[in-house]
Design brief:
The protein starts with a strand and ends with a strand. The mean pLDDT is about 95. The chain is an all-beta fold.
């Protein structure tokens, strides 16, 4: 079974930066897409960003384009999310996931397993 462990969240002021990490185990991740989702307070979980197994194909939600950067290290089975110019509306629990498809499916209900997530809080 896939195991996903997210880390790197915290409290930051608007305009600040954070770098999230997600360590994955239980599968050969070099062949899988990896991505990030988030769930804000009182909101549904939503897609944030995805990266293909080779790292050459990337897509972002419109709300984070130009501010967030996704990357991966297949040797470490880890995906990262560099978040710059953070806004209060970025406050959410951030989750990663993996997919055999690319483009990675963006509907959270397509996924059966989630890690515990990491909390990001952006103060105004």
């Amino acid at each position: 079974q896939v195991q996903l462990v997210e880390s790197g969240g915290g409290l930051v002021q608007a305009g600040g930066s954070l770098r999230l990490s997600c360590a994955a185990s239980g599968h050969t991740f070099s062949s899988l897409s990896m991505g990030w989702f988030r769930q804000g307070p009182g909101k549904e979980r939503e897609f944030v960003a995805a990266i293909s197994w080779g790292g050459t194909r990337i897509n972002y939600a419109d709300s984070v384009k130009g501010r967030f950067t996704i990357s991966r290290d297949n040797a470490k089975n880890t995906v990262y999310l560099q978040m710059n110019s953070l806004k209060p509306e970025d406050t959410a629990v951030y989750y990663c996931n993996v997919d055999v498809m690319y483009p990675m499916r963006t509907e959270p209900q397509e996924y059966d397993y989630w890690g515990q997530g990491t909390q990001v809080t952006v103060s105004s």
